[in-house]
Amino acid sequence: MEAWATAYDAQSIAVLGTAFDLAQSVYGRRLTSYGQPLFEHVLGVAGVIGSLHLDYQAMAAVLVAHVLESEALSAEELEQRLGPDVLRLVQGVSRMDQVHRGGMDVTLDEGRREPVNQAESLRKMLLAMAEDIRVVLIILAEQVQLLRALVKSTHPMRQRAAQEAQEIFAPLANRLGIWQVKWELEDLALRILEPELYKRMARLLDERRVDREDYIGLVTGILRAELGRAGIAGEVTGRPKHIYSIWRKMKLKHLDFDQVYDVRAVRVLVDDVKDCYTVLGIVHGLWQPIPGEFDDYISHPKANDYRSLHTAVIGPEGKALEVQIRTHEMHRHAEFGVAAHWRYKEGAKASQGFDEKIAWLRQILAWKDEVAEAGADATEWV
Q1: Which among 361, 353, 354, 346 is positioned nearest to 58, based on CA atoms?
Q2: 354: DSSP letter
Q3: Is pLDDT at 372 greater than 70 in this prediction?
Q4: Backbone angles phi, psi at 41, to 5 degrees
C-alpha cells in the first residue's frame, strides 16, 4: 500500500484501498487451482502490473478480478464501489480467461503438447483485446504470477502452464513488445520444462559470474571514458542475462556456452538517435566488429516497434562482447512495449486513441505467424 502513495493521486489511492479491502474480505482463505492463497496470488499479479506502470483502474481490477466469481458481490455492486471502468476490466479479464480455458484443449502428438484450433483461439483473444488492451496486460501478469508459484511446486498443471507460456503467452508478450514479461515467462517455462538443462545453464552462469562482472566493469569503464571525451551524455550498464536467451542462441547457432556473445553484454542509453550512431562508431573504433553480428533495428524496427542498435565485437582480452545502443525512449519501449503507449491518464475514456488501438491490433495479427513457427527465433528480439 505504501508504494501507491508515490504512484497515484489521493483519489486513485482511495479506490485502490477499497479494492484491497474488498479483495481481502472476499477471498479470505480461498486458494487458487494450484494451491496458492488467492489473495497472495492477486498481490503478486498487482506487483507485475505495478512494474508496467499501468493506471490505478488496472491495479484495482487485478485486486478484485475474482470477486464476481465468488458471487459475494454482484456486478452492479462492484461498479458502485469501484466505478464502471474497473468493472469493465474485471469482466474483460473473465471473458478472456474463459476464451483461454475453452480454446486450449490439448492432444498429444509424438510426446509434444499442441494447442488445438490455435487460429480460432487467437481470433477470439484478439476480439477480447480490441475492447481494452489493459485486459491483455492483466492476463499476461496473471501468467507470470502463475509460473512464479508453479516453479516452486509439484502441481500437475505446471507442465501445461509452462508449455502455454512458451507457445502462447511469451509470443504474445513479444508481439506487444513487453520485454520484461516475455523473458520472465520464457525463463520460468524453461525452468519447469527442462529443469536439468536450466540448472546446468544457471550453474555455468554462476561459475563465471565474478569474472564476467569484473570484465563488464572494465568494459563499462572504458566506454564511459570514451563517451565523456566525445561529449556524449550516456548511461552504460551491464545487460541482464536471461537463461532462455542464451540457451536459444546456443541451440539455433550450434554454439558452446562461451561462444554466445550476450553472456558478456553491455547496454548504452543516450538522449537522441544521432548519439546512437556516434556511440556505435566509438565502439567499432575501440574493438573489432564481428562480421555478420550487426543489426540496425533503428532504421529497420522489428514488427513490435522494437528499436535499438546491436553489435558484437572482439572486446578487451580477445573476448566476444555484445553491445546494445538505444535512446532512453527506445529503452522504455523495449521494457514496457505496448504498456508504455497505453498509460491511461486519470479519468481518460477507454474510447480515446481508438485509431491507435486498431493500428496495434493489425501488428498483433502477425503473432499467429510466430505461434505457427514456435521453435524458430521469431520470439527472440533482444
Answers
A1: 346
A2: H
A3: no
A4: -60, -50
